[in-house]
Each structure stands twice: as structure tokens, then as C-alpha cells.
Amino acid sequence: MHQLGILLAAGYGRRFQARQPQGNKLLAPLANHHSVAATSLHNLRQAVDHVIVVMRPDSPELYEQLAQPNCTIVESELAHTGMGASLADAARAALQCYAQSPASTVLVTLADMPCISAYSFQQVQQALQTHTIAAPLYQGQRGHPVGFQWHLLPELTTLSGDEGARSLLQRHGIQLLPCDDAGVCFDIDEPDDLQHPTLHTFLRSHT
User: Fold this and answer.
1) Can you tell me the distance from the alpha carbon of 178 to that of 137, in angstroms, rounded to the nearest whole number?
2) Whether 114 contacts 188, CB under 8 Å
3) Residue 1 clears pLDDT 80, i.e. is over it
4) How confident is the model at residue 181 (pLDDT cuts 50, 70, 90)?
5) Cβ-Cβ contacts under 8 Å for 126 (sequence gap 6 or more)
6) What are the beta bridge partners of residue 29?
7) Which residues of 61-87 are buried (b: 16+ CB within 10 A; e: fewer)?
8) What is the SS3 assignment for 142?
9) Its pTM surpasses 0.85
């Protein structure tokens, strides 16, 4: 069965733009000559067969960077209302793509998280063989990817607003997987994060 990924790339990055008014953190270039979002997508693509990327409409430069092989772009009209709406649109697209042959698991991660290791993706996928929902835990903090068994996709389609998947986690519980991968909790939030040691260490080890 297929392994599916969902990359959420519809955020506004307001804290980043507050420091860099003309900047888009997802398009910020990294030392690997790719953007933050393109690197996040690359990492996820290594772990799954197909990625559904959710972004806001009218994001042509981001669209161009993320329209990769084995990727489906979903432009979410309600993305401005929050992550729940983006997840719901991604889940609907996934159910449509795999109506005849469901995937086995779904890994959800964010386009501003370019440092998640291959092992962390694999650890969550393995946990989903026996747990409904799973995610890494780094120094007491839950990180990404958050993994779901396929049968939860219809419930994801009901999400809205900025709740994310919290209602599903409360309903079904989540298996937390302790790890030593700082990348599962590291995101690009402000321009200074582009110089963070976690990012530099990851890029050096993946060149």
C-alpha cells in the first residue's frame, strides 16, 4: 500500500514578515541552494510515495517550487482561516486520489520545518503499524511529522479553523516517540532562525 504525505504550506509567516516585511519564510534560500519549503518537501518525499501540498491561492512562486513529481498541489480557498481548513482540504484530496486503492498511512508536516531526519519519518511510519496516531517527542515537546492511519482521513475532512488536528488527538490518543532529532520541533519562525545551529547541522549532514 502507498505511503502518503501532507505538506502544509499555507501559513502567512507573520512573525517572519514583521522582521522582514517583503520576505516569505517559505521561499527563503538555504545553504543547499533550495528554499525552506522546497527542502521540507524534499525530506518528506524521501519517506513517502506521494505528497499532497496545501497552499494559498495566488502563490505562483511557491507553486512553481513545490510542483514536483509525485506531488499534488491543493490551493485552499479557506487556508486563511487556519490549519484545520488546510488539513481538511488535503484529506479530501487524498480520499479522492486514493478512492480505489487507499494508502496505509499519512504523515503530516509543515513547510517551514526543513530539518526533519529520514529516521524520524521512518519511526512514525513504523509506529503507525500498531497505533492510530503517532508523532516524535523531543525534549518533552511533541513534534512533526504527525502520522495517521488511513481510516482517520474522513475525520480530518471535518476540521476547520485553527484547531489543527487537536480534536482527533483528544478522541483517539497519540503515541509519542522519544527521539534525539531536534529537527522535529525546529521551524523557521523569524529571519534569525535561518542562522540557527540546528539548521546548519542538518544541511551540512545532507550535502
Assistant:
1) 5
2) yes
3) no
4) very high
5) none
6) 35
7) ebbebbeeeebbbbebeebeebbbbbb
8) strand
9) yes
C-alpha cell at position 185? 520541533
Q: What average pLDDT is seen over the chain?
A: 92
Asked whether residue 79 carries a pLDDT value surpassing 70, the answer given is yes
Residue with cell 504523515: 107
Distance CA 88, CA 83 (A): 9
Closest CA to 90 of 162, 174, 5, 27: 5
Q: Which residues of 128-166 are buried (b: 16+ CB within 10 A; e: fewer)?
A: beebbbbbbbbeeeebbbbbbbbebbebbbebeeeebbe
- Reference 30, options 18, 47, 19, 42; nearest CA is 42
Cα separation, 132 vs 145, whole angstroms: 14
CA dist 70 and 168 (Å) reads: 27
